[in-house]
Amino acid sequence: MRIACLPRRALLALLPVLASLASPAWALYKVVGPDGRVTYTDRPPSDRPAKALKAGGASQPTDGLPFELQQLVTRFPVTLFTGANCTPCDAGRQLLQARGVPFTEKTVNTSDDIRRFRDEEGSSQLPTLRIGQKRLTGLQQSEWTAYLDAAGYPAHIVLPPGYQAPAASPLVPLDVQPKAEPEAATPSPTQPQAPAGNAPAGFRF
Questions:
Q1: Which residue among 38, 45, 112, 169 is least crowded, i.e. fewest CB within 10 A of its CB?
Q2: What digits encode the pLDDT tens for the residues 64-98?
Q3: Do 63 and 154 have their domain in common?
Q4: Domain's final residue, options 54, 75, 96
Q5: Among the residues of the chain, which ranges form H helices?
């Protein structure tokens, strides 16, 4: 059910959602001038491209987006955490893409990814969706839709033609992950092998 169809009391009940989504940091924009000079501002320039920055200086995928979407991505950045061979993760990704929501995808596949995911998100379930500061664990399409509506994301695609979403990247960059130890040629018969396509140990899809 769309928010526009909800009774007035239900709409008022969703107002606190926006407060829970909001980031404590103000928006910052990185602007590169014609001479290559870099400046930072709290307002996006109207005459040149800019990158919205979140706390810590990480870029959000705002290049080439309409002004309204730039504001939403800055205030309520969307991050999708996924795993390999995860059917609900694929469905969650398709939901965001069908709606035209700009998002960052982080894969949780290696042991380092898993440790950081548990430390930072306090969860062992994929997919997990973050909208601003709000964490949604597991794929519940109605819940995801309601929070995207509350954040103000358009119900239909308004992305410019040719928009390219950033490629998915590991939660822990590969260049900082330790090299894996060589595996034994023959696994021990006392160690059961997980069937292909299963979630990492301790994870649920």
A1: 38
A2: 788 989 999 999 999 999 999 999 999 999 999 99
A3: no
A4: 75
A5: 8-21, 67-75, 87-99, 111-121, 141-151
Claim to verify: residue 97 and residue 64 sit in the same structural domain: no
Indicate the pTM of the whole model: 0.61
CB-count burial class (<10 Å; 0-12, 13-18, 19+) for 70 = buried
* Structural domain total, the chain: 2
How many angstroms separate the CA atoms of 21 and 107, rounded?
22
Range of the domain at 67: 24-75
Q: How far apart are CA 152 and CA 91, in angstroms?
A: 21
The DSSP-derived string for 146-175 is HHHHHHT--SS--PPTT--PPPPEESS-GG
Contact 36, 150 (CB under 8 A): no
